[in-house]
Amino acid sequence: MQGSQNVARIVGVIGASGSGKSRWLKDGLRRMKPARLLVWDPQDEYGEFGQVVTDMRELVETLAGLTPADGFRIVYQPGDDMSTYKWKFDLFCEIAYQIERLCVVVEEVADVTTAGWAPPYWSRLSRKGRHRAMTMFAVTQRPAVIDKTFLGNCTLIHCCRLNDKNDIAVMAATLGVPVDDVRNLKADPDTGVFQFIERNMQTGQTGCGALDSRGSHRPVPERNVRTLPEPEATT
Ligand SMILES: Nc1ncnc2c1ncn2[C@@H]1O[C@H](COP(=O)(O)OP(=O)(O)O)[C@@H](O)[C@H]1O
Ligand SMILES: [Mg+2]
């Protein structure tokens, strides 16, 4: 979770429900303390990270009133009615795209994109956010159902336990690790062990680790993940 303010990062956080995705991400936010934070929080669980806003008009007005120098932390909660998510999420992404040096967190991406379709401003964010020195965290339970371009645009993938066979295969291929390494990831609330595999998508460096019982990111890999040979560089 180290980062430079000048380097855009798109972090894909993938894993089954209860696999430790949000715990890892929240722990990272506590340490990063981003100066400008905007969260899409459909499960109303990020209140500790900023001012909670539930009204889209209020979100638009609050952000429109900021100067480029202002810091802010806003947690937007779109509510329970998922039929409203489409327009709310598109507007959320359009607003986020306008803001320089933003850390944007999107929980449960599979609720708002499909394998074949992504909201236009979401695509723009994940393709061009790097020009705005953006850090983006996008969380999903189902890699097989989020839009395909997204994983390809990630600079880091953080993969927790998955249960679905298809999802395991998709993530093993994306991470470039043996399928069994993904299949064997543990998520055990009783022992507090939540394992993950991470891949830096720019360097191909791959490693694994686990949250400790307090939810902290243990940086030392527990074991080495076999990394497949890199393809010939094409650039
Ligand atoms: N603040 C907390 N304290 C203790 N346990 C928690 C806390 N938040 C979540 N958990 C537990 O940690 C596990 C992982 O939760 P979470 O990271 O929210 O999963 P998800 O992958 O669905 O985002 C779950 O078993 C959950 O019940
Ligand atoms: Mg979660």
Class computed from helices, strands and strand pairing: alpha/beta
Question: How would you sum up the global shape?
Answer: globular
Number of helices: 7
Count of distinct strands:
11
- CATH top level assignment: Alpha Beta
Strand content: 15-25%
Any guess at the CATH architecture?
Answer: 3-Layer(aba) Sandwich
**Helix content bin:** 25-40%
In this structure, how is the largest beta sheet organized? 11 strands, mixed
Distance between the termini: 26 Å
What's the assembly state of these chains?
A: single chain
Order of helices and strands: EHEEHEHEHEHEHHEEEE
If you average the pLDDT, what whole number results?
A: 85
CATH topological fold name: Rossmann fold
Low-confidence stretches: 1-6, 218-235
- Considering the protein shown, what is the CATH homologous superfamily? P-loop containing nucleotide triphosphate hydrolases
Distinct compounds present:
adenosine-5'-diphosphate, magnesium ion
How many domains make up the coordinates? 1
Tell me the Rg in angstroms. 17 Å
